[in-house]
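Dissemination and training. As part of the outreach component of the grant, students in the summer workshop were shown how a complex can be specified as a set of sequence lines and then modelled as a single object. The example used during the hands-on session is reproduced here so that future cohorts can follow it. Participants entered these lines:
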Amino acid sequence: MSGPATDAIPARFKPGDRVTVREAYPLGHLRTPFYARGATGVVERLCGAFANPEELAFNRPGLPAQPLYRVRFRQAELWADYRGPARDTIEIEIYQHWLEAAP
Amino acid sequence: MRSHHDMGGLEAGPVVPSEHDYAPWEKRVDALMMLLSARGLLKVDELRRNIEAIGPEAYDRMSYYERWITSITQTLLQRGVLTSDELGRRMEEMKARHAAEQAQ
Amino acid sequence: MSGQPHDHHVQGHHDHDHDHDHPHAPPPDADSDLTYHQAMELAVTSLLLEKGVFSADDMRRQIEAMDARHPGLGGKLVARCWVDPAFKARALADGSAACREIGLEIGPLKLIVVENTAEVHNLIVCTLCSCYPRMLLGLPPDWYKSRAYRSRAVHEPRAVLAEFGTHIPDDVEVRVHDSTADMRYLVLPRRPAGTEGWDEARLADLATRDSMVGVAFATSAG
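and obtained this result:
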């Protein structure tokens, strides 16, 4: 639970932007869930900038801080076999370095 | 590769609405995390990383605070706050003291 | 509290399914046994006390603070939202600021309040570990940390909700929040019918822990 940091990378995305989660599988301590990788959603809000947990996990400062977003996905985008209504969604916090602009 | 702790979307059985009153030793483990974190001797993401490093079989076998004390201790060893030798000796002392108390 | 010196409960509440035996499982926790991990806790705590990292008083105060946190704190926030639309708007915009406004001590908590409406039902989970708004609800229940909940809440939320007796119609969106990073989440449940004119203290009791996690509705009036 790190506080917002002052030494921060500028935010690239804004609410409403379509973004795709990078489909990457590096070693280390990651806060991007496996099931979300490669999925495309919409930025719900920018939460601020936070020290990078992938660095904090090794007792390094994690600066400059990464912008953190809440991204909203349609459940059907994440699970081919999703059984609920098409309107169901999920929101996940994702750091900027895991996101790419989607068409 | 998916890590063992990263379980969103995997098949699993029904959610059993289990809960228990936390035991004193479990509360002390939780307090250890808070105290060490406040003193800059442990970062929450280090705690998580060392939990994730527990082998899958052990991860599933251990209770929640068993995983935490394992991870907290691992972090303290990594940071040089504790040494394995003093830890091992003190654990033996604690077991001996407990056994002596039980024998009374 | 059980008042017992050892933890007799945990053995039955491991975060895994119980459909197979573990050949390397430790023996059942007998009264007189100090488990390996309990011995580790005692050893670590005593070494840190000895090294002056913290005092026994620090430890005691930390546990007292932990014991003082309970769902009534979250309930206080919910009740204020129910009676004061302007406050609710502020809480939805900045949950942490709203907590501080009504005197809730939340430390560095970054809170997002998500509102249940006629159109949306929210559900909170942490698939990667056990992130939980402990400053407002106390320590999480075992089920919240279980493999079953963490695995399934994101993939089949309606089935999980049904297991809690909470049935969401198909024309209501179920919105799951996976608490993966720095924010923590609290569900603002819908205010039960028949509570017009109730004072905040009485309303706060209707906002149960489970309703603020989203697995249940607020308790009905009467």
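Chain B has a mean pLDDT of 96. Students were then asked to discuss how this feature might be tested experimentally.
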